[in-house]
Amino acid sequence: MAVSKAKRVAALADGLSERRVMHLRDAASMLGVSEMTVRRDIADHADQFTYLGGHIMLASEIEPDRPYELATAADSHAQAKRDACVHAAKHIRDEETIFIDCGTTLIHMIDLIPDTAAVTVICYALNVAERLARRPNITMLMLGGLFYPASASFSAHQDLALLDGIGINVAFLSAAGVDAKRGATCEHFHEAQVKRKVLSLARESYLVADTSKIGKLKRAFFAPLGAFTALIAENGEIILPAD
Is residue 83 domain-shared with residue 136, that is, in the same domain? Predict the structure, then answer.
């Protein structure tokens, strides 16, 4: 006998309470229905579930918007941020040039660069630069400009043209919001300008964001999700559909 929609929704909510994030195919298997049925249930209960890149999570996991402060953001979902960086660090290769974005997520990436890897790292955030400076095997290129204390980052406006002469192998970008329709957004407009420039140049670009960012939409848009090679969250890598 077919399970009622109300029972499916309740079972999905219970499953997500235990696992936090669930792939669409796993949810369909658990409920004994098609993936299309699960997607319809999710769409009909948008206040209860969030869906992105084939993954489902509870809408209650999405934090209400608050002003961004670097100091307070550092402790928010810290373990999830580290886990996402562990997955992202697999794309760091010896003797390549990488870009590490500002914020409190990708700061964990620096500790994951192998001591034996001789890499060049481009950055524009003070907290990232300070940690990179402690690594003797890393060549650092710091983009400067007007300093913004709230995100410990520089505008980098005058230095963006310098990037045209640099071969960026891999870019690791962060976002304060990841929306299925609108794409990747951040809090500050000067950051969006840097992110867009790097995206236009890098051979591979990974959006590294824990799942608390999914469903949020911030004021500064910088790229549709299809512009990235993949989205990397704490539960692994999600291949995004092309534009």
Answer: yes
Q: What is the CATH number of the domain that holds 127?
A: 3.40.50.1360
Amino acid at 168: I
Q: The tokens of 115 are what?
A: 């001591």
47 and 86 housed in the same domain: no
| 54-63, 131-140, 197-206: least confident range | 54-63
Helix (H, G, I), strand (E, B) or coil at 122: strand
Q: Are 214 and 50 in contact (CB under 8 A)?
A: yes
- List the single range of 20-34, 76-90, 165-179, 189-203 with lowest mean pLDDT: 20-34
> Which of these, 187, 138, 4, lies nearest to 123 by C-alpha position?
138
Domain boundary among 39, 61, 83: 61
130 phi and psi, to 5 degrees? -60, -40
Residues of the domain holding 37 = 5-61
- When pLDDT is cut at 50, 70 and 90, the band that residue 53 belongs to is low
> Is 104 contained in some domain?
yes
**Domain identity same for 79 and 56:** no
SS3 211: helix
Q: Do 46 and 94 share a domain, yes or no? A: no
Q: Which two tokens stand for residue 83?
A: 């886990």
Whether 9 and 110 map to the same domain: the answer is no
Q: Which residue has the higher pLDDT, 143 or 4?
A: 143
Q: What distance, in Å, lies between the first and last C-alpha atoms of the chain? A: 40
CA proximity to 123, closest of 144, 146, 99:
99
pLDDT (0 to 100) of residue 18: 76
Question: Between residues 68 and 130, which one has the greater pLDDT?
Answer: 130
> Could you give the angle at the alpha carbon of 85 between the alpha carbons of 194 and 39, nearest 5°?
90
